[in-house]
Every structure is written in C-alpha cells, then in structure tokens.
C-alpha cells in the first residue's frame, strides 16, 4: 500500500486572485497572532482588522462572522498539520520507521487537538471537527499499521487508536481526572504497543 | 479490588412523596411508549399528557421542557442499565467470567448508546453525556481489567476501550463509513483481546 499522498489537503481554497489570497492570509496571521498574545476571547473582528491594517468591513466580507474566522483558522492550521504529516521532516513526516512515525503522529495529534481546544469551542458549529480531518488521520494510521505488518481489521484498529485522542476524552482525562499530560501520552504509547503486537505470537 | 457496588445510581431522585414518584414514573413510561411507537420527533408534551391522562401543565411542572423530559428519560434508562451491569443476570451482571462480562459490557454499552442516539440529540444540552455516566463505565471496565490480571495503567486502558464506543465515533463508523454493526462489534472484541494480552508474554 503506497502512502496516500494524493489526498487533497483540507481547506485548499478555490482559486482566488493572488492579492485576495494574500489579503486572506494576512488576516489569518493577524488573528492568530492576537490569539497567541491575548487569548481567543480577545480576538475580535475589530482587533483583527486593526492589526492587519484594513477596515472591519473587509474582515466581515471575508469570513462573515467571528465563528467563520475561527473555522478558517482551524482549517488553516489543520492543513499545515496534514502537510507536516505527509511531507514534513521525520519522525512525523516520511523517512522514519513506521512505529516511530506512529508514535510521533499520536503525540502531535494530541498536542494539536489540545492547542485548538479553545478555537474549536469558539468556532461553534462552524468549527465542528469535520469528517475530512477524521478521514485523513484514519487513513494515515491505517497506512502505518499496514507498514508495521499488523493483521486484522485495520480501519477499526486505526479508529481504536484515534478515539482516545478526541477532545472530549482528553478533557475527561486531563481536566476532570487530572492525569498529567505525560501519563496520557504514555498510556497511548502502551495502547499502540498492545494493538500492534501480533496476536498469534506463540506463548 | 471489590466491585464498586456502593456507587450511587445515576439519577437517583431526591425523596419524593410516593404519589409524585408514581406520577413521574407514569409520565416517563408514557413518553417512552410514544417514542417506541412513533419516534422521538412525535413525542410532544401534549401527546405525553394525553397518553398519561393528565393535563399538559402537569408535564411541564414536572420536567420544565421537552428537553428536560428527554434528559429525564435518558437518566432513567442509564440508571436501569447501570443496575443491570451491577446486579443483573450474567454475563452483563456478576457471575460470569471477567472476559465474558467485559465483552457483554461492550456490546451492551454500544447498543445502549445507539438506542439513545436520537434521545441524546433531542435532549440537547440537558442531555449531554455526563461525567457521572463516563465514570461509572470507566470504573467498571477498570475493575474487570483488574480481575483479568491485566498489568499497566488500568484507568487509561479502560479509557482506550471505552473511547471507540462513544457516539461520534460510532456514527462515523456506522453512518459515514457504512461498516455493518457486526463488524464494529467484532473490531471492539479484537481490541479487547489485544489490550488484555500480557505484554511480557515471551515471544
């Protein structure tokens, strides 16, 4: 099975005039820098416009609402992450052993989900995690399980490895149970090793 | 580790006068029978009142809103399910081997989540799956993993077994990927066996 390189990146925009694309990019960079500096709650359409040096109307024309801008930021960030998985440096990208890539993938997915936590919430319905993102991660994990020679129902095993990395589960573990992040990561690594072991390994 | 029998059942109501409790029970039974016969969308407060032979005002006084009634139904059903797990007949209840109980638990949890699917949606925020339900299931799976002699971080392994049974994951598998239900159940059984195998089993 060859690596699914031809999958279109999530959020690839339809062709835009170059200055419009630049404009959009500038607004997303402005919004992200505001969030990094002041937190999601301070990212207002006015503040983004001021930081990017454009009128507020331009920001609304481009993203319709604050929720729309949040969703665009999420998409932008998911696209960058997908690109890193598919063609970035190892061990997340190609070039490392499949087990090393799988463990790097899990840690990176977990961190990215936690980093986007507030953004997902702020984007409301517009930002609900899309099946496109899920499909990308499922296809990638399935590919790596195949490379590892795992036998069994690989799509379902991929799902089993991805499910504990979903936000509600992570929130339960980190915020409610108060498990340290390292413990959650170690637990996931242990799960991967249990899933990958060959079942007919002689006792 | 002894079985966590002393855990209070979810949704145990505060003490009510006996006739009020009977009244409440009658309304829940009426609502459930309407849903079973006509679907969640036809369960109106008027229809529930008519079926139970009381005024609409009584239904509203009791549950405040349609969402409130849906949430009460969910709680009622979760309580019955928890009672079946803790003291019902084997293999879901006590008396069967731990592996048999664990597999019966997974299938039953999956079926209950799917059965309540529409109810969860209709209950809106009032019905968002509570951490109390999650804690009960996590404690039970952790107990069974202990009985099976599994070594490792049992709370995290319990989470890993429960996460693929959450509704968004099941919906992705059944409604989007169109996997048959049996395949999803088989996948979960395979996951359990992989997780339970002793890691230091000599190769």
Roughly how many Å apart are the termini of chain A?
Answer: 30 Å
Helix content of chain A: 55-70%
Structural domain count of chain A: 2
Mean pLDDT of chain A: 85
C-alpha Rg of chain A, in Å?
19 Å
Structure summary, number of beta strands of chain A: 0
Largest sheet of chain A: none
Description:
- The structure is a homodimer of 203-residue chains.
- By secondary structure, chain A is mainly alpha-helical.
- The first copy, chain A, folds into two domains: 15-63, Homeodomain-like (Arc Repressor Mutant, subunit A, Orthogonal Bundle); 66-196.
- Helix content of chain A is 67%, strand content 0%.
- In chain A, helix 5 packs antiparallel against helix 6 (131-147) and helix 6 crosses helix 7 (154-162).
- The model of chain A is unreliable at 1-6 (pLDDT under 50).
- At the A-B interface, helix 7, helix 8 and helix 9 of A face helix 7, helix 8 and helix 9 of B.
Using brief descriptors, characterize the structure shown.
mainly alpha, Arc Repressor Mutant, subunit A, homodimer, disordered N terminus, 9 helices, 203 residues
Write the layout of secondary structure elements.
The structure is a homodimer of 203-residue chains.
Chain A: H1 18-38, H2 45-52, H3 56-63, H4 66-87, H5 98-123, H6 131-147, H7 154-162, H8 167-176, H9 181-196
Helix pairs in contact in A: 1-2, 2-3, 3-4, 4-5, 5-6, 5-9, 6-7
């Amino acid at each position: 099975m060859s690596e699914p390189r031809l999958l279109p990146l999530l959020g690839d925009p339809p062709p835009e005039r170059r200055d419009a694309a630049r404009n959009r990019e500038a607004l997303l960079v402005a919004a992200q820098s505001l969030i990094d500096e002041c937190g999601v709650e301070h990212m207002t359409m006015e503040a983004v416009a001021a930081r990017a040096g454009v009128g507020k109307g331009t920001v609304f024309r481009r993203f319709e609402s604050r929720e729309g801008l949040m969703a665009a930021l999420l998409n932008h960030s998911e696209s960058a992450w997908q690109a890193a998985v598919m063609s970035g440096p190892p061990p997340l990208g190609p070039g490392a052993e499949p087990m090393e890539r799988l463990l790097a993938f899990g840690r990176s997915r977990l961190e990215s989900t936690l980093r986007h936590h507030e953004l997902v919430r702020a984007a409301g319905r517009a930002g609900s995690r899309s099946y496109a993102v899920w499909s990308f991660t499922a296809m990638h994990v399935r590919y790596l399980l195949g490379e590892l020679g795992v036998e069994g129902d690989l799509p379902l095993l991929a799902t089993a490895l991805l499910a504990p990395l979903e936000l509600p589960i992570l929130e339960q573990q980190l915020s409610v149970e108060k498990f340290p992040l390292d413990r959650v990561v170690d637990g996931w690594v242990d799960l991967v090793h249990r899933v990958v072991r060959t079942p007919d390994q002689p006792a």
